[in-house]
């Protein structure tokens, strides 16, 4: 099995400032974990910059222009209270969206079985004309749009196991029956969306996890609700918003998962993809703020992608 790994130094250089939880050390920790001999088989590729036309399928052109206009020559600029730009952030945002888009194109084209995109800034909170929750552009939604517009796919699914609901992805997908979005997340919690009553046009599945939930609730939600609906949708490409902040050690939430839970779910998702879309899976890093558990969880996820 061939697994691609996309990343770029600019994604490390994006620096929201001292004490910000979404900091360069996150990606450094993930890349260090994936630099071990165990992962020598990964096909490592430099993330390209996304085409603006791909980004503008998801984001309003005036918003895209405003982001690049706001990138500072020095210091920091806030797009919202949580989302901060530094001089490297414009390129980092382009590389993050470009990585997931290029990974989707490579997997669709048969260059590899699957891919993991070790990038930042994350994306699943970014809405059409609004940065939110550390996210500038919605990387997975940009890739899904590219897969349909450029490669002719009719059905693309995004599944999201970040502890926060991907409001931006849901907003981009909820009126389009050719797209599917499913998420498990702590609820009620930031960003306030993700109720199980939110169903879009029948293409949205949300699993609410109460604070204090652990492996049993998480696995039941995926096995009982999300995975059957994903199989019924039968995607031609499966994209994963891979946030690891539902880990028991993560400081920003109150869900108690371990690396074993992420490995289990990765295997389940690969099994569905094997049935529906010849195993075509692209995964993109979202959250995860305890460095040790983030690195270990990402390694567990990628280990299953590689078939190790």
State the distance separating the first and last CA atoms.
9 Å
The radius of gyration is 17 Å
Largest β sheet strand count, sense and barrel closure: 8 strands, parallel
Beta-strand portion reads 15-25%
Give the uncertain stretches in residue-range form. Answer: none
User: Which strands sit side by side, in order, in the main sheet?
Assistant: 2-1-5-10-9-6-7-8
Average of pLDDT: 98
Q: What CATH architecture label applies?
A: 3-Layer(aba) Sandwich
Specify the CATH class. Alpha Beta
Number of strands: 10
Helix and strand content put the structural class at: alpha/beta
Say what the CATH topology is. Answer: Arginase, Chain A
Q: Helical region count?
A: 10
Written account of the structure:
It is built from 10 helices and 10 strands. The chain has a single domain, classed as Histone deacetylase domain (Arginase, Chain A, 3-Layer(aba) Sandwich), CATH 3.40.800.20. It is α/β, with parallel strands linked by helices and 308 residues long. The chain has an 8-stranded parallel beta sheet with strand order 2-1-5-10-9-6-7-8, sandwiched between helices. The mean pLDDT is 98. Helix 2 packs across helix 10 and helix 9 packs parallel to helix 10. Strand 9, helix 9 and strand 10 form a beta-alpha-beta unit.
């Amino acid at each position: 099995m061939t697994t691609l790994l996309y990343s770029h130094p600019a994604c490390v250089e994006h620096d929201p400032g001292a004490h910000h939880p979404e900091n360069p050390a996150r990606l450094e920790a993930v890349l260090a974990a994936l630099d071990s001999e165990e992962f020598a088989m990964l096909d490592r590729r430099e993330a390209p910059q996304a085409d603006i036309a791909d980004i503008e399928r998801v984001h309003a052109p005036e918003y895209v222009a405003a982001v690049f206009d706001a990138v500072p020559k020095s210091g920091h600029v806030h797009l919202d209270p949580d989302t901060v730009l530094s001089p490297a952030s414009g390129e980092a945002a382009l590389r993050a969206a470009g990585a997931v888009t290029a990974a989707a194109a490579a997997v669709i084209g048969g260059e590899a079985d699957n891919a993991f995109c070790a990038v930042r800034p994350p994306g699943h909170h970014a809405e059409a004309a609004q940065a939110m929750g550390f996210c500038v552009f919605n990387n997975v939604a940009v890739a899904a749009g590219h897969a349909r517009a450029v490669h002719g796919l009719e059905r693309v699914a995004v599944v999201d196991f970040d502890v926060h609901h991907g409001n931006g992805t849901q907003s981009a997908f909820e009126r389009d029956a050719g797209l599917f979005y499913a998420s498990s997340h702590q609820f009620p919690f930031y960003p306030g969306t993700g109720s199980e009553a939110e169903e879009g046009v029948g293409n949205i599945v949300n699993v609410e996890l109460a604070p204090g939930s652990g492996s049993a609730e998480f696995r039941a939600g995926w096995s009982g609700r999300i995975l059957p609906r994903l199989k019924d949708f039968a995607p031609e490409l499966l994209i994963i918003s891979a946030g690891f902040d539902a880990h028991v050690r993560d400081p920003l939430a109150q869900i108690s998962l371990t690396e074993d839970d992420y490995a289990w779910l990765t295997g389940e998702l690969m099994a569905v993809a094997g049935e529906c879309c010849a195993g075509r899976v692209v995964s993109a890093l979202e959250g995860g703020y305890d460095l040790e558990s983030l690195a270990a969880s990402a390694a567990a996820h990628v280990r299953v992608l590689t078939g190790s």
